[in-house]
């Protein structure tokens, strides 16, 4: 994969605050109640705090990368935005409408506008249906075209994602992992959405196939003027496709910035640790590796104050007591850390 960072569709720093977001996520919260055992009945219910007060904006035509360690709540955000799981609190305004208040026909219309690509392409495809049926199913649900038109649309979208027309008649088990992920992309594209939420779409693929899928996503984005929310745990992948990056830790976004700004001057100690772990293309090159001590705290009982303070090499007394607020330290570069408060 090339080390060149694509910023062709980035929102210019001077225009970002003037441009209206296509999607505004405000104070998103998702708690999961813990199932009580027999001896716990009558006691206070405990909650796994998967996502805790997350806010960010998506601008039309950009790719917003959401990165962090496994279990930090990235996938929960994606699934909540398409209402596969229901939020505990918060708003998600799409063109002024709150996605979390939609029901019935409004929900169906929303899902035509916002589609999702899943991490495991095999488990997200019906093994008993042929590829053509899988791709045409969203068209049937949204009453798009007749049988002949749906077949033509499916054939066209297969060609667009780089597959052959004979794949139309195959079953998912007859395809490779990369081909199955292209089918997942085709199924998302077939209803002509405006936003695609890609939940770790390349993490299950070989490195050589990862670059092909990322290049395909970028080409399709440019052709169809799509907006991406790209979720991944590998910051070296996110850096190649994202215009802006949000860094998550234990259910919180701790830093957000344009890609070039975040890579050049990471501000939060957690972001610095993530970037220090990215291998350099030159094996002889050396850089300081930041080793975080301890384990990630349980989201069932997150630390008080700053959630990162139990592993932070620069921890101060205030970090253990007060939760840091997100502050704009540089133009369009936000960080939630007491070092900057």
Helix content: 25-40%
Question: Which word captures the global form?
Answer: globular
Whole-angstrom Rg? 21 Å
What is the number of E strands? 12
* Largest β-sheet summary: 8 strands, mixed
* CATH architecture field of the domain at 13-127 and 225-340: 3-Layer(aba) Sandwich
CATH level 1 class label of the domain at 13-127 and 225-340 = Alpha Beta
Tally of helical segments: 10
End-to-end C-alpha gap: 38 Å
Stated plainly, the CATH topology of the domain at 13-127 and 225-340 is called Rossmann fold
User: What's the overall average pLDDT, rounded?
Assistant: 88
- Which structural class matches the secondary elements? alpha/beta
Strand content: 15-25%
Task: Order the strands across the largest sheet as they lie in space.
Answer: 6-7-8-3-9-10-12-11
The ordered H/E elements are: HEEEHEEHEHHHEHEHEEHHEE
Q: Could you give me the name of the CATH homologous superfamily of the domain at 13-127 and 225-340?
A: P-loop containing nucleotide triphosphate hydrolases
Low-pLDDT sequence parts? 1-17
Quaternary form: single chain
